Amino acid sequence: MHLAHYLGLLHKAQERLGDAFTEVGKAHSEEPDVFHTCEKLATQCRGHAEKLAPFAGRYAEEAPAEPDRLHSELFNGTRTGPIGLLRDLQDLYLMAAECDICWTVVGQAAYGARDEELLGVVKACEQETAIQLKWLRTRMKQAAPQALVVAE
Amino acid sequence: MVDRIADPWGKRTPYGPGERWPVRVDSFLADGHTEADVQRWVPSASILHSNGDAMDIAVRDDRIVGVRGRAGDRINHGRVDPKDLYGWQANHSPDRLRRPLVREGDRLVETDWDTAMGRLVARSKELLDGPGGWGHFGFYTSGQLFLEEYYTLGVIGKAGLGTPHMDGNTRLCTATAAAALKASFGTDGQPGSYTDVDRCDAIALWGHNVAETQTVLWMRMLDRRRGPNPPAMLAVDPRATPVAREADVHLAVRNGTNLALLNGLLRELIHRGWYDEEYVRAHTIGFDELCAVVEDYPVAKVAEICDLPARDIERAAELLGQSQRLLSTVLQGFYQSNQATAASCQVNNLHLIRGMLGRPGAGLYQMNGQPTAQNNRECGADGDLPGLRNWANEEHVAELARLWNVEVDTIPHWAPPTHAMQIFRYAEQGSIKLLWISATNPAVSLPDLARIRRILANPELFVVVQDLFLTETAELADVVLPAATWGEKTGTFTSVDRTVHISDKAVEPPGEARPDLDIFLDYARRMDFRDKDGNPLITWTGPEEVFEAWKECSRGRPCDYTGITYDQLRTGGVQWPCTDEHPDGTERLYTDGVFNTDPDYCESYGHDLATGAEQLPEEYRAKQPGGRAFLHATPYQPSPEVPGEEYPLLLTTGRTVYQFHTRTKTGRASQLVHAAPESWVELNPADADKLGVAEGDLVRVESPRGVVRGRARLCGVRPGVVFVPFHDGYWDAADGAGPGEGRHDRAANELTITAWDPVSKQPIFKVAAVRVVKEADSGGRPSPAPTVGGAAPPEGSGIPATVGGPAAEAPSRRE
């Protein structure tokens, strides 16, 4: 059973997203809404990772060796200025999108594994990830015209 | 005669449930004049708070000599707030701006209108030339202009320049009211009527010190409390305000925890069955989700978060749950605090689950702070589209494009209009290059003033200030335009309970000062804005023409003004919507439990309350609201800044009954100045004891952003909390410190944090971490804080009472 690998993938993606939210928030602390919201969402991501941890352990025993190229690298540090903010939020968006699709995949596997407990975690967390994506989209939509057309 | 400084609320006229509130006509005429000396009474209403009290301006020899309340008006039944009794005298202040000013190096010099407008227009045309030119313009307007002025400015911004960067001081006072109303009921618009006070059996005041913010509304509540079968009263406020002292249950909540309290109260109501299942089923969406969220807030947990006695929370729930006709009012204690929109929506939820809407006595006022804030929201000179339209609804934007005869994409509708704090951020970053500030004073009213001064003083930013006086903000401007004010120009405005009043011109403005409307129209003419057929975009020449145009814009929308005329308003106030079908206006909204949530009609497709993430139109449609209201709920989260070791106390800011906004007017009326001459710092006696501070001692309040000094008043603010009034700035500082020089230690906003609610974008003025240090002994002199209102010292303190003396004596006669 390969579920452990996807749990591991999601777990790591959530941890990385949490760290990236923290980094981006700090880098753009002069945008107070970005700073404060990123702080909150970082905590949320770490909470997701914590909730996943016991399942990763539970399924690890039955898992064969980890396949190649399982994890992806989507974030390489923050940038500055209005366009930098946009790009950093876009990195977060892609990372959150990875988590979003992982929740879908893990949720499907949870059905297959008849694991009601895991399914409960997926259902609670995937909604929060969906809102993270929506917030990022909202904030980027707001910032884009000024950053790309107006700012020098 | 009544000294309305010593007694701001005047004599009681008690009445019982369902009776008509007795008339009491208050007036004040200066210089020994009597009513017999008055040559003309000109209809108007209050411009120094949001209650909308109707009054007549007394004129003699083409000069204002006083005011008198209108006995027949539905709002005040003749009563007048003390700020209105005395505040008009500021119109005559010798330091009124009489000529335009322009910057020459580090000085502002007098000039003529052509030169001042010429500079503004030259810079505007230069900036507008080129792609993205619209993005260099920012407008920061007010809650004190008239409807006609907002609408004109809205059209200039949205159809002329095509910029989304327009907001008002309304963002600081009323944005959460609008956001919460939209979220729950589909559009802005107060459900209730002030007559709900006459019928209710319980009043809950949520972060609303109505005794000092809207004194006439408080008089009405007090008169019910002194009459037969008085309503029960609940106050939620960290200070021992007059409201808190009057209330049967006072919850001195820890600031920043309102949402936890409301979640707990809703849980109690639901657990104890104090809700209307039938109403919930027929008229709301989201009850199960609401139950799931509030379930996590049992009384014991809430008591801990909010630092309240558990029994008091239960008593509050009993008071709310056992009422049959509940009236709620919400204001800055919620709007300017943590999780503002979510907490205010919970008050809406309380009324929805109890079916307490749309019938006499069962009312809800999501209050406004500034007098004409409602019109800014309606007319679209703040973060809304005119006519309470939905920027995300393409058909709504197309309606405006047809009305103005411009291309749809001229109107910025790709994102919500830019909120005030973001406008200042773009100015800070340099992408906004022209900032036009009208009738407000951000150099005192915005958070973290050191930063705001830095932004306004940047030579790269072209700052235009339109005001009555050389305010702290005007000192930093490149062009200063002298404006006419209340009594010197004609226009309309709308109260919290949707009552529209006219304010007619009574006298000429001083010198070359012009009505704000004339200034905007002059700008539009000089900029030569055109519609898509090449005709002038704006053809209006006076306020009544603008009002007629606005009526068309409002047609079919919740704020429908089509049935209102200037002539009708001169006979008395009318509540919108007022149409051919309802020619006398509409007292209450949602009487049938059908809300404005239809996807084609609503003003917003909604947000996630925790983050502000926008919901997409198709998601909103999928909920099939069908006229049902939304029960939004979200968990409590601590405020962005909470006390710690370095800054162990919580700061909150607020007002006194004697002053308005940044004292631009009320600081120039002698009775009001004497009543509250300077700022102060309120401490709880237990905290003061630990700090070694006694009454009247000079203390320094420090936050991570700045320092404020003031004389300590030991009074009823809750332990751990420090209160500083937000009115004071620097224009009349004793040490003469102008902007950019001298000490900046008077304005409360030196201390406040730059942070805002994720949905309403209203700044958080009521939660910041501070420490207090004693600087000097009182020398036996008590704090200059008034003894009336929230700053009242404990009984027996021996501090001389605040009085106005003979100069403040005002007639008050009963019917």
What do you see in this structure?
The complex is a heterodimer of chains A (152) and B (815). With 152 residues, chain A is mostly helical. Chain A has a single domain (3-150), classed as Ferritin, CATH 1.20.1260.10. Chain A has helices at residues 3-27, 32-60, 81-112, 116-150. Chain B folds into four domains: 2-92, ADC-like domains (N-terminal domain of TfIIb, Single Sheet); 101-174 and 372-575, Rossmann fold (3-Layer(aba) Sandwich); 175-367, Dimethylsulfoxide Reductase, domain 2; 649-784, Barwin-like endoglucanases. Helix content of chain B is 29%, strand content 17%. Chain B has a seven-stranded mixed beta sheet with strand order 7-6-18-17-16-8-9, with helices on both faces. Chain B is globular. Chains A and B meet through helix 2 and helix 4 of A and helix 19 of B.
Key features of this structure:
heterodimer; A: about 150 residues; mainly alpha; Ferritin; B: about 800 residues; alpha/beta; N-terminal domain of TfIIb; Rossmann fold; Dimethylsulfoxide Reductase, domain 2; seven-stranded mixed β-sheet; six-stranded mixed β-sheet; 27 helices; 30 strands; about 30% helix; about 15% strand
Number of separate structural domains of chain A = 1
Strand content of chain A: under 5%
Q: What is the average of the pLDDT values of chain B?
A: 96
Biggest interface, CB < 8 A: A-B, 23 and 32 residues
**Mean pLDDT score of chain A:** 94
Strand content of chain B: 15-25%
H and E string of chain A: HHHH
Short description:
The complex is a heterodimer of chains A (152) and B (815). Chain A has helices spanning 3-27, 32-60, 81-112, 116-150. Chain A is mainly alpha-helical and 152 residues long.
Helix and strand arrangement:
The complex is a heterodimer of chains A (152) and B (815).
Chain A: H1 3-27, H2 32-60, H3 81-112, H4 116-150
Chain B: E1 2-3, E2 24-29, E3 40-45, E4 54-60, E5 63-69, H1 82-87, E6 101-104, E7 107-110, H2 113-128, E8 137-141, H3 147-161, E9 166-168, H4 170-173, H5 175-185, H6 196-199, E10 202-206, H7 210-213, H8 215-226, E11 232-236, H9 242-246, E12 249-251, H10 258-271, H11 277-283, E13 284-285, H12 287-294, H13 299-306, H14 310-322, E14 326-330, H15 332-335, H16 340-353, E15 363-366, H17 373-379, H18 394-404, H19 420-429, E16 434-438, H20 442-445, H21 449-457, E17 462-467, E18 479-482, E19 491-494, E20 499-503, H22 516-527, H23 543-554, H24 566-569, E21 574-575, H25 617-622, E22 629-630, E23 649-654, H26 670-675, E24 680-683, H27 685-691, E25 698-702, E26 707-714, E27 721-725, E28 768-776, E29 809-810, E30 812-814
Parallel strand pairs in B: 8-9, 8-16, 10-11, 10-14, 11-12, 13-22, 14-15, 16-17, 17-18, 23-27, 24-26
Antiparallel strand pairs in B: 1-29, 2-5, 2-30, 3-4, 4-5, 6-7, 6-18, 19-20, 20-21, 23-28, 25-26, 25-28
Helix pairs in contact in B: 2-22, 3-17, 3-22, 3-23, 5-16, 10-13, 10-14, 10-16
